[in-house]
Design goal:
The chain has 31 helices and two strands. It has a two-stranded antiparallel ribbon. A hairpin with a 5-residue loop joins strand 1 and strand 2. Helix 11 crosses helix 13 and helix 26 crosses helix 27.
């Protein structure tokens, strides 16, 4: 009786029967797994244990294959349910604690497959229920070891060296082992790095080491960039240790022994000059930055300058010698004199600055001091320009004032002042990476500041006299400020004083456009002295005066061209101001004229009508309306008595809406002396 017949006879459900069959097959492979693990754990004590492990694993594969074949080739109606590929899922080895043991067996199986030269389909992975990522990692580890072993064999046996194309030979080896060429390149780099570390174990690369490394690089087809990176990394770390030790030794510890150690590392490790300088620069700049931090947090300017002085000494004694040893040069030997480069015009101009001149040592002093301090390694890229100039200014002020000591009641006295500090100031500029122009700018600004402070006292009222000019010239010589710069300071002081007076006069209505025009013709910078809003208000006030002057005159050229030019305002903005004022004044002038007529203010009536005509010239208007025709006639008649021009009479007639016959009648009445307001008129001449 087969299993299927037994199931049907016992009326066992299909699902339960399938589970029972799968449990049975799983227990079979668990026995094989346990046996294989037992053999594997006994490795080292039993000969041939690796082979026995493989035999047990092969039993699992054979058992699994038999079940698959049975399922595919037999009569499915008679087969028990659940037959097929077997798995550890749901059994003893389906746990996190047991998964490591399954990985070890899988690793042993793959290793044996490579050893026997037959890498078949990976069915054991499915049986053990291992994921793709972990099996790929195991496969990579094993193929890497196998590739390394095969590579060692072909190198030691001479096969690789004899190959006409090393690259093709290595590619074929990767294809044979199904090994990723990119991973192979990483293996080659790792081998080169190991060889390099062995060669530099004594801190030196001999000619034999260099030749061996070159041979290895050619055999393994390692790119030059990879080689340079490996040398910069491995040799660079060793070199950095020596540099750090030299720097930490400080001013007193950089002796002949340390000097020899640096020279040996620089030459023996065969680093490129660029790589060695990059390592040294990073270490030195780190020390410089620490000095700067302490200088910034110092309690006084003197303490800050002392920290900067320590940095200067460190640069002169340690860093300069360190760079000379790395380059194989001697700082004690002055370089051959070269043709002196012509000074830039700007530097030549500012040579009158005493503080700037003192930063340049004389030839005699240069010979006494020896070689110049290094300026290759700077803080240019570590600090902003403002921070660097602030540090330079701090030390410059220290050079000028010297060291001071505080006394009771807030007083201070100078205890030490040395002009050699100016030479150190020049060296500080090199450490900070300041250009000549940037250094000159600091000296210039300080000189201008000193000159300005004293000049402001001399020019307190903004007035210049012969005696004051002589006093300012003497002050200019004392601070070494060029004449042109001194004149700019003087001009700015006087302009500031004048500008205050001008703006106050404009705001108070005490200055006219005519006076503004005179100032502009005298080259006074009114655009900067008087605010734009103030100038626009002055223009508006002037136009308002024109529209209320009572003359009836409006000169377009003067209003639209000369006034805006004198005040420095936009023409379009000026026209808008005029138009807005004219529209506002136009109707108001008629109302005002009628009001004055009723008050019998005859001169005021004529002035208001002239203002109406002036507004009309700025903004040609339509005839105006008034509810009392008799008052309109009186306005016109009264205006005629003032003997205006025919042009003004005609325009006023149009604006008041008087027809020609009425206008003629009114003219005749005035001419005949028949016009009267009902009271005795006062004679007036406008």
């Amino acid at each position: 009786m087969d299993l299927r017949e037994a199931q049907l006879k016992l009326k066992l459900p299909d699902e339960i029967a399938a589970d029972m069959f799968r449990d049975y097959t799983r227990k079979q492979i668990e026995e094989y797994i346990s046996s294989a693990l037992e053999v594997m754990k006994s490795q080292g004590r039993v000969r041939g244990s690796a082979l026995k492990v493989t035999e047990e694993l092969n039993k699992i594969l054979a058992y699994n294959q038999a079940l698959i074949d049975l399922k595919n080739n037999s009569d499915k109606e008679r087969l028990p349910l659940g037959i097929g590929s077997v798995s550890v899922l749901g059994g003893e080895y389906d746990s996190d604690r047991k998964i490591d043991e399954l990985r070890q067996l899988y690793r042993a199986c793959v290793t044996e497959a490579f050893s026997s030269g037959r890498l078949e389909d990976d069915k054991l992975k499915n049986i053990f229920s291992l994921g793709n990522r972990e099996t790929e990692q195991i496969m990579l580890e094993i193929t890497t070891k196998v590739y390394r072993r095969r590579l060692s064999q072909v190198v030691s046996g001479g096969d690789l060296e004899a190959a006409p194309s090393k690259a093709v030979f290595l590619q074929n080896l990767c294809d044979e082992l199904r090994f990723d060429p990119q991973k192979a390149s990483e293996v080659h780099e790792d081998i080169y790095r190991q060889k390099l570390q062995q060669c530099v174990a004594d801190g030196n690369l001999s000619k034999e080491d260099v030749a061996a490394l070159l041979r290895l690089r050619v055999l393994l087809c390692i790119p030059q960039q990879t080689v340079d990176t490996a040398h910069a990394d491995i040799c660079g770390r060793l070199f950095q240790k020596v540099v750090d030790e030299a720097i930490s030794a400080g001013i007193d510890g950089y002796d002949s022994e340390m000097k020899a150690k640096v020279q040996k590392a620089a030459q023996g490790l065969r680093l490129t000059k660029e790589a060695a300088m990059a390592i040294t620069s990073k270490a030195v700049r780190s020390v410089f930055v620490n000095y700067v931090k302490r200088a910034r947090t110092a309690e006084s300017r003197t303490e800050s300058a002392r920290e900067l002085k320590k940095m200067i000494f460190f640069n002169n004694i340690v860093v300069t010698q360190l760079l000379a040893d790395i380059k194989g040069e001697s700082p004690d030997v002055s370089p051959e004199p070269s043709k002196e480069e012509p000074k830039q015009d700007e530097e030549d101009e500012w040579d009158s600055l005493e503080t700037w001149r003192k930063t340049k040592p004389s030839k005699e002093l240069e010979d006494k001091l020896g070689a110049e301090a290094q300026s290759e390694i700077t803080l240019k890229d570590d600090l902003s320009l403002r921070d660097r100039t602030d540090l330079y200014r701090t030390y410059l002020l220290y050079c000028i004032s010297g060291e001071t000591t505080g006394l009771p009641f807030g007083t201070q006295i100078v205890t030490k002042k040395d002009n050699r500090e100016y030479l150190r100031l020049g060296q500080l500029g090199g450490i900070l990476g300041l250009t000549s122009k940037e250094v000159v700018d600091v000296h210039r600004s300080l000189a201008e500041q000193a000159f300005r402070q004293q000049a402001q006292v001399i020019l307190a009222d903004g007035q210049l006299s012969k005696a004051r000019i002589e006093q300012l010239n003497e002050l200019q010589k004392q601070v070494g400020l060029p004449s042109e710069s001194a004149q700019k300071v003087i001009k700015s002081i006087t302009s500031t004083r004048i500008s205050g007076a001008i703006e106050a006069a404009v705001s108070q209505g005490k200055m006219t456009i005519g006076q503004i025009r005179e100032l502009r013709e005298a080259n006074v910078d009114l655009d900067n002295i008087i605010a734009k809003e103030v100038r626009e208000n002055l223009f508006k006030k002037t136009i308002d005066e024109i529209f209320s002057s009572g003359t009836g005159d409006f000169n377009e050229e003067e209003v639209y061209e000369r006034f805006p030019a004198d005040l420095g305002i936009d023409v379009s903005k000026a026209k808008k101001i005029v138009l807005d004022l004219a529209k506002e004044r136009l109707s108001n002038s008629l109302v005002q004229a009628v009001a004055l007529l009723r008050q019998r203010n005859l001169s005021g009536v004529v002035s208001s009508l002239n203002n109406l005509l002036a507004c009309d010239k700025a903004v040609p208007a339509e005839p105006l309306s008034w509810s009392v025709p008799e008052e309109v006639s009186d306005l016109f008649s009264l205006y005629l008595k003032n003997n205006p021009s025919e042009e003004k009479i005609a325009r006023l007639q149009y604006l008041l809406g008087i027809n020609d016959s009425t206008a003629l009648s009114l003219k005749q009445s005035v001419k005949a002396g028949a016009f009267t307001l009902g009271v005795e008129e006062e004679e007036f001449i406008f």
